[in-house]
Amino acid sequence: MLPIPFLVLLLSSILSPSSAADFCAADLSLPTNPAGFSCKKASTVSTSDFVFSGLGAPGNTNNIVKAAVTPAFTTQFPGLNGLGLSLARLDLAIDGVVPLHTHPAASEVLLVIQGSIEAGFISSSNTVYYKTLSEGDTMVFPQGLLHFQVQSGSTPAVAFATFNSPDPGLQITSLSLFGSSLPSHLVEKVTFLDDAQVKKLKKVLGGTG
Q1: pLDDT per position as a tens digit, 92-134
Q2: Which residues does residue 162 pair with via DSSP β-bridges, in sequence order?
Q3: Bind-site residues for oxalate
Q4: Which end of the chain, C or N, has fewer beta carbons within 10 A?
Q5: Where is Mn(2+) bound in this sequence (predicted)?
Q6: 149-202 pLDDT, tens per residue?
Q7: Which among 148, 141, 139, 147 is positioned nearest to 112, based on CA atoms?
Q8: Which residues are annotated as a binding site?
Q9: H helices present in the chain, as ranges
Q10: Binding site for Mn(2+): what residues are annotated?
Q11: What percent helix, strand, coil does the chain show, rounded to 5?
């Protein structure tokens, strides 16, 4: 038999309204803090905070990598704030590629819904895991590891990604090296490329130095 006082406390905790907030729709008019966006006042929250329609339209793949990523992060989708997740749409035209990159703050799950995508990642021990994904296939990319996606086959590809963070972060290796102001002689040292190759890539990707 449980003591009567304990039963009373247990029942009151079950039956009383929760003191925890159900959600924290982002107030985009306020600056972010280490925990994310501040919450909107309950009186200003609406259904539109929990609905995002932007993933239904193809992204513009008319660029150097022939790829487009349409994010559904907290900035676009305020209802995600505080929930520890986000989404994105990936469009890859013929020969499209998402170069080697990392998400420092999140793991990623990719679901292919059209065409085929060759995708993979490199572990911290330099083991490579890659596969050609067809419609309906899903692949996970562990947090912080270098990974890539490349269109394969004869038709453009579309995929949806989910992340276990409202702000997964992004660092593209080639842009960090050749699209930045890191001096060319240092890029040559850390990549073992010669001066002509480095300057060619910097010209393509907009780097200086």
Answers
A1: 999 999 999 999 999 999 999 999 999 999 999 999 999 999 9
A2: 87, 109
A3: 103, 108
A4: N
A5: 101, 103, 108, 147
A6: 999 999 999 999 999 998 899 999 998 988 999 999 998 999 898 998 888 888
A7: 139
A8: 101, 103, 108, 147
A9: 4-15, 173-178, 184-191, 195-205
A10: 101, 103, 108, 147
A11: 25, 30, 45
